[in-house]
Structures are given as C-alpha cells and as structure tokens.
Amino acid sequence: MTGRSVTITEVARHAGVAVSTVSYVLSGKRTISADTRRRVLDSISTLGYHPHAGARALASKRSNVIALVLPLRAGMHVPVLMRFASAVVTAARTYDHDVLLLTADEGTDGIRRVAASALVDAFVLMDVELDDRRVPLLRDLAKPSVLIGFPAETAGLTCVDLDFAASGAQCVAHLAERGHDTIALLGAPAVVYERGTGFARRTREGFVAALAGSGVSGVALPCEETFDEVYETVGDLLRDQPGLSGLVVHNEAAVGHVLSALRQLGRRVPQDVAVVAICPDDVAERASPPLTSVLIPAEEVGREAVRLVMDKLAGKVVPMSTLLTPHLVLRAST
Amino acid sequence: MTGRSVTITEVARHAGVAVSTVSYVLSGKRTISADTRRRVLDSISTLGYHPHAGARALASKRSNVIALVLPLRAGMHVPVLMRFASAVVTAARTYDHDVLLLTADEGTDGIRRVAASALVDAFVLMDVELDDRRVPLLRDLAKPSVLIGFPAETAGLTCVDLDFAASGAQCVAHLAERGHDTIALLGAPAVVYERGTGFARRTREGFVAALAGSGVSGVALPCEETFDEVYETVGDLLRDQPGLSGLVVHNEAAVGHVLSALRQLGRRVPQDVAVVAICPDDVAERASPPLTSVLIPAEEVGREAVRLVMDKLAGKVVPMSTLLTPHLVLRAST
DNA sequence: CCCGGTCATCGAAGCGCTTCGACACCCCAA
DNA sequence: TTGGGGTGTCGAAGCGCTTCGATGACCGGG
C-alpha cells in the first residue's frame, strides 16, 4: 500500500518556497520566475504530489467534475448512447475535469443533490425528451448545463445535437435523386415516439416535410427491435406499397433485421430496394451490404457539449442551439 | 438561479445548537437527544441544507464517491456492460455514494490520479482481462477495489462474477439430458479470446470439460457479430457436423443472427436444432422463439460488487472470490 | 541619490466540515 | 450528603488548498 499522501506543504518545504507559491505555479494565476517554477515542478514530481480534490474544491469553489446524466430508457440504443458518453468523458479530461455518472433512478433529486453539495460544477444531459422533467429544474439551478438533444421548449437552455430534421430530409433527397418515388421511413420503437423523444420525432418531421418538396410519396412508421416484428413491418410495407423501392432506417438495433427481412422476402439491396440508414458509421459499415448512411457523429456531439459547458463555466456566452450538419456517405445499399 | 448555498453554521444558528451537534445529528456518531435531533432536522429541511462534498471529504478523508472503471473494448456487448454499470450506480446510491466514470483512454494513470487526489474512496473495475494491466496497480493502491470478472492471477484481489465455467457446463448438461449428442458452442468474437477475457475463456473451458463427463461430442468456436459471418459460421458448422442438434450461444449480439441463420438454412428451433443462450433475461425473452438460457445476472453482480467494496471500506474482511451460481431457465428453444 | 513602479514571493485568513476533549447536568449508590 | 458514571452538548483544532494584501528586491528616471 502506498503511504500517506503528499500535501502542498511538503512540496513547498522540499522546494524551499511558500505554500502559496506552489499553488501559483500550479494555477498560473500569478507570475513565477522560471527558476522557482522549475524547482517546484521538480519537487512535485519527485514527491509524487497530487492536489487533494476535496481541499481544492473547498477553497476554490470548483470541483473540476461534471455530471453526466444518462437515463437508460427503454428503446434507446445503448451502444450509441455510450459513444456519446464516452466522448463526453474523453473531452472532459482535456479540460482537466472528471465525470460523475448519474442515472435515472434517483430522478431529478440526484441532479439537485449533486448540485447543492457542490460535487459537480456543471451538467451534461443525454436522452432528452420533448417534455423533459429535468428541464425546469435546470433553469433555476445555479450550475451551467448543456443538453444533448432538444426539448420542445429550449428557452434559457443550451442544446446540441445532429440536425435530425435535415438528416431525414437529406435521406429523402438522396432517394429522390436516385429515382425512387415511393419510399418509407422505419424509425424508433413506438414507445420512443410516445415518450416524445426529440430526435425520433424530428427525423420524421424532416422526412415528411421533404416528401412534399420532392414529389416523392412515402410513409413513416415506428419500428420495433425484434426480428419477428421487423419482418412483419417490412412485409406489410411491401404489400401495402407495391411500388416501394426506397427505405430510410433510423433505428440502429433494427438495421440488421431489416436487411435480413428483405433478403427473406426475396428483395435484393440495392437492386429492388435501396436502403439509407441514419446511424453511426461503424454500424453502417458492418452491415451487409454496407449501408449508405447519414452519420450520427457521437464523438463530435459529445466533444461539442463539453466545449459548450466549459465555456459557460468560464463565463462566456454560448449559442443556445448548436445543430450539426448531417453528412450522407455513399455505400453499397443505394 | 438558486442563491448561495446553506452551510452547517447557518443550520446550527437556526436550530440554536453548536455546529458539531448538527454534524453529529447527521453522522449519528454520538448520541443526541430526540428533541435536539428533531429541531436540527427541521432546520435542515426548512433551510434546504446539503453538506458541501469537498469540505466533508477534506475533514473526513472520505469522498463518498467510488470510481467505476469501464474500458469499452472491441467486441464487448455494450448493453450488457451498461446493465452492470447501471446496477453499480444504483447500488452505490443505497450506500450514499456516487460514481465517477473512468474510461480506458487515460489508461492506468487515470486510476492513479483519482486515487492520489482522493477524488474517490474505492474502485470497481469492469471488463477484466486475464492479464490485465490494471491489476498490478490495484495491488499497491491505498484504496480498496473489486473486480467484476476474474484475471488469471487473483492473489490479493477481490473478484465477483457469474460462474461462467459452471454456466458452460450447465448448458452441456441440459442438452445432454435432452438427448443431444453432437453440440457446439458459439462464443465471443475471436478478438475477445485473443485478448484473454476471462468470461469467454471460462465458459469455453466449462463447456469442453463437461463434454467428456456427459458423453456428448462438441466443438467450441468463436463467433463474430455481423449477420454474414454468423451465417457462414453456422452453415459451416451444420455441414461439418452432420449430426449437430444442439447449440450453445454465448454472444448477445449474435443470438439474433444465429436464429435468422438457422431459419434461412431451413432448420427449425427447437425441432431440428436446440439452442441455449448465455445472456441477460430480456435478450432471451425477446428472441424468437424465446430462448432457454443461463441468465447473466448483471444487476446482482453489480450490487454484489458494491456490497463488497463497501465492506472493504468499512474494514471488514471479504471473500477474495465470489462466484454466482448459474440458473438455467427453460423457454421455447430446447 | 531617491522615488515610484514592477516583479516575485510570502504569510495568513478562510473555505465548510469532522472529531476530540472538555464540561455541565442528572441520577443513583454508598 | 457526596461521589461516580453516564448523557448530551459545546468549542476549538485542523483537514489541504486558494487567494488577498503585504513586502522586499530591483529597475530606470528625474
């Protein structure tokens, strides 16, 4: 076992300077001569000093920890959520911050608690619903926050996400361009729409709105995640829409099933039915055939969320709304 | 915005007692008269007091935070990992602790850093490899830790997991009982075995060892996660092992593909091929047909890991190794 | 040669809490 | 009546850090 931990006092004594000098070397808040700085840094590394997080938080009123609020709701695709989460952790570290993980079961009390106890400096919230219970709380919290996703009413909030409406529209445009005039959107499970999850609804709205402008006819359906249900949905679709030749799939868990179902129903991709997905790159690449897709840039969104929250902590004014432009990548399925 | 936060001094003044009395009411470390306790608790709730986490950590040498070390390695099934993680967070809250999330990209330095800075009191590590780089570090860390999973050398560690060897054996026994004499194990992707991930190897060992005792012949193969690869693997298997009538699948992501592949290859489940899975309950239930399975008790493992780490923090002696007994649940696939 | 102004450093206060020893009080046994 | 042993409460020290004001050394200009 490693012994008692080294304090700033011991570093100061070892370097022959005052405690405050060590502190200023670390924070850079006052000028320190090159010579002194070097001596202090040497002492720090030979003694293996790490500032005590609690003491620092107490004296500076900053914990250097941000909370990541990650409810794991039914129907959400966990691997995608974790890519966001992972990106948030990595980005936070580049600002010398750590990440406290909050899940749903404590409800909004968890948010209130960690804010009031000064455990964290700020919040990043994921899996935002249109009418999210957490939102009113954020408005009168003394700590900054950023949402990944958009609730219905964004006044007073900072939100960041992929522009899902534009993504839906871009898929329609792509299929129209390829000459498809009857298409469908297979979206998230019904429960996700009912709950009012922003990204699902916005994609659908973008999809529907774009149909009109492009002279394409199409329907938007929710889509469950078991093979049997997908098979049935796809079967019904092909029966009801005889001319159907294009499919937009916005459901990571169902993508594989959709392709299997088409195969079993005797439709070739892309010859008989063209398929565009809205999903992370690796999901699209691992499918067979590899899917033309609009990339969900999880890493970029996570990084951007952290950048925004750090700017807010630094007192900067940040845009209320950050919508990342979708990019469609051509692969073998269209 | 909520105003400046309430301190213990204000609570004490409001209740007409000393600061230390408030502290003792909260910690229960000294006897306090019922009357005083009530007055203090009233003041706390009317003022909305929450102890300052940093101050508490500084004075008590306990941060009430545990670190969850969760590398997201290739080939791991993220939804299952997140069930463990989620269970850890929930369990930690029942001990009044929060969870700091550490990912892989900082490597072992992250562990060292948060330990040295007293940001956390203890560690729970997931996704443990047989020869894990984090293990030697844990041995000379001054903080307790618990591993979810078993490395090759467990001396000086505390580990908890499902007994995967017994699980593999139990699947063999179940199929043998049903009269199947030629079976196969489809496991994790090859990369997971190569990396030396304990649970994958132990299941395979348990499976192979049980074959001998039960007079069943069988093979164990790694299994990738794309449909095409699964289809090929299953196809090869049926061709090379003509008498094959039982399959054990220990790969959450491939389960669905295996069933699709069997269907496409004209085999009915369970009439032609019986399938047993090792996976969380919901995955087994959502498959079609619902799968007979050995449950991976993520919630229980997470809870147990937290219980162990809290016992260690409390100075109790805990068992080095906790192996949860597997339970096979009968469903429609065998 | 003295004065004002940097620059580099120091000392001390204070952040909000826990914990230790002290003490006042009360009850009961001697 | 006195003494001893609990109870219940208080005051103060101290946890390790940041930050503010003060100070000394050194510079160039008048």
UniProtKB/TrEMBL annotation, chains A, B:
Stretches assigned to the HTH cro/C1-type domain: 7-36
Domain HTH lacI-type: 6-60
PROSITE patterns named in the record: HTH_CROC1, HTH_LACI_2
InterPro entries, per database record: Cro/C1-type_HTH (IPR001387), HTH_LacI (IPR000843), LacI/GalR-like_sensor (IPR046335), Lambda_DNA-bd_dom_sf (IPR010982), Peripla_BP_I (IPR028082)
SMART domains, per the entry: HTH_LACI (SM00354)
Keywords, alphabetical: DNA-binding, Transcription, Transcription regulation
Keyword DNA-binding among record annotations: yes
GO molecular function: DNA-binding transcription factor activity; transcription cis-regulatory region binding
Pfam family, one: Peripla_BP_3
Name assigned to this protein: LacI family transcriptional regulator
Organism name: Nonomuraea glycinis
